[in-house]
Amino acid sequence: xxxxxxxxxxxxxxxxxxxxxxxxxxxxxxxxxxxxxxxxxxxxxxxxxxxxxxxxxxxxxxxxxxxxxxxxxxxxxxxxxxxxxxxxxxxxxxxxxxxxxxxxxxxxxxxxxxxxxxxxxxxxxxxxxxxxxxxxxxxxxxxxxxxxxxxxxxxxxxxxxxxxxxxxxxxxxxxxxxxxxxxxxxxxxxxxxxxxxxxxxxxxxxxxxxxxxxxxxxxxxxxxxxxxxxxxxxxxxxxxxxxxxxxxxxxxxxxxxxxxxxxxxxxxxxxxxxxxxxxxxxxxxxxxxxxxxxxxxxxxxxxxxxxxxxxxxxxxxxxx
Length: 320
Hints:
Largest sheet: 2 strands, antiparallel
Order of helices and strands: HHHHHEEHHHHHHHHHHH
Number of helices: 16
Shape: globular
Distance between the termini: 17 Å
């Protein structure tokens, strides 16, 4: 949920240069723990207000109360605690898990929230909030300090809005049931119990509707829509993440429904990426690795791909 409050376009360019220069494309990030959305809300009130209108937010109060027999069967199939908020499998995706202090057991404090996309913040939130020392406001931060802050926050685990592939991977791992830590045997039982999987899940359609939170200068009160070129770029990042996440788990389970869904995700992503002229796209299709995906996303940064993939973009009226 965290967005850049100032110089969004320039910051995105700077971030790419900073990460490239530091060799931090995402693989070297620290792993922290969640601090909870109320910490983000201290500065990002507009973004959190958007989040409070989403299914992600509402699910915290609704999911564990569901009287749907299928929902209960799925939780039982997952094994462990029958309360989804306390079930180790359900909490992988459905909740933000926060420990009040180091050493405490993490507990569900909300549905998927800011850190579900932008990374657990315990190691980076102080860096993110430091604009140059005590009392220095964001408007007074020097360009040199901003570069250093962005680099250090990323190294500490923050995923900035400009890092589209990394955010897309977080989305695809949960919505594609490809989350690391999801046991294959448990997965099969959940699928047999009716757990839904949406192989057609596409990043633009699901990120530019109720979830969209783009409050950038010069008008930070406006939730800005993406341009066609930006949408095309985001679409490609999403397809790259879909391909990588599906390839990683297609052989994980023999469950017929799960395997068919992952094979469809693979086929759809390959078809979409096959529309691109960039040689990095073919390399990714041939070898769907995180490294190759990042190479593609880096190669297309700032380019207008609407002519190549524009016809595949969902209509604004279908945004979720």
